[in-house]
Amino acid sequence: MGSITAEAERILNAVREIVPTLRxxxxxxxxRRWIPDENVKxxxxxxxxxMAVPRRFGGLDLPxxxxxxxxxxxxxxxxxxxxxxxxxxxxxxLATLYPDKTQEEIxxxxxxxxxxxxxxxxxxxxTDGGYILNGSWRFNSGCRGADxxxxxxxxxxxxxxxxxxxxxxxxxxxxxxxxxxxxAAIGTGSSTTTATDVxxxxxxxxxxxxxxxxxxxxxxxxxxxxxxxxxxxxVMAESVATYIGMAKAAYELFVAQLPGKGIAYTNWAEQSxxxxxxxxxxxxxxxxxxxxxxxDGYLRLLQERADAGVQPTLEERAAIRGQCGFAIQLVKExxxxxxxxxxxxxxxxxxxxxxxxxxxxxxxxxxMMTPNANLEVQGRVLLxxxxxxxxx
Length: 392
Hints:
The chain is an alpha+beta fold. 48% of the residues lie in helices and 13% in strands. It is built from twelve helices and eight strands.
């Protein structure tokens, strides 16, 4: 990823120190179906939630690649904690798409946690000074610890057409259901949030199409600021960090438990001496390295375009989605290969390996991150077809 800023290096070092704590808190995170308060406090102290906040509001405004480094390291400790951090950090960047008045409200404390529900499963009805919001959003990762929620909703126009919008709402004005009962990413607390007749001022509502294109309102980070990466690029790049970090953790844990470990019901007293183990370890290491190389490439492209004050081309945006999907496929395959030869002891709840394995499998089903959907988008554009999606 090239050079790293001094501020990012400081945060990265702080996160490295707490990786063992995040990892050891994994069972508690699953028991309560939400990451421990200690995890949030440690990340807050490390300034993780200031990374994407503009400097004029007391934030650090770190380059995207530096943010990804930190989020990847968090995932080495806990996949759920990293996934929630991705939601909050990318959500803070998304808040920069709003007018200055909105940003002043959201970034009032310099550090902020913004979750989001991006499926337009709600309605906005115009009223004096703003809109009335009603609806529910499933899979709202990080909602239990968020300050704000960025929520997709539809405005129905007189002609019957619907306009997708993004409403920024204080978390305190929403209700959270206790409905997160899952087998993976359990600690993310990705419950359903509901708005009931919530008033949203007009300055906190943005047109979804404009947000995707990076042309919303009087936003202050327009032009060649070096931070205008584009909504989908930010969300995809930061999300992939969690997958890569979890794979690195699973690899480290697998290799660490090999010394003195035999293969049950065989004459192999040292599993590390078995050729299949050697092949799987090398394959996993190379797949993880290949995923990181893909990430380096699209992060470099996003930064070059942001520095120039332009958005990536359609072909480049489709390639970024495909490369993100393929990076996830690579690390998923890497961990699956190790899991196949990990032995029965790996399924114990106290064995951290199985949690990273389950979380990787589960999060690979995410609608926007699943490899097949992203490779399809890239493949369509490579073949001269339309991408068949606005999420680019």
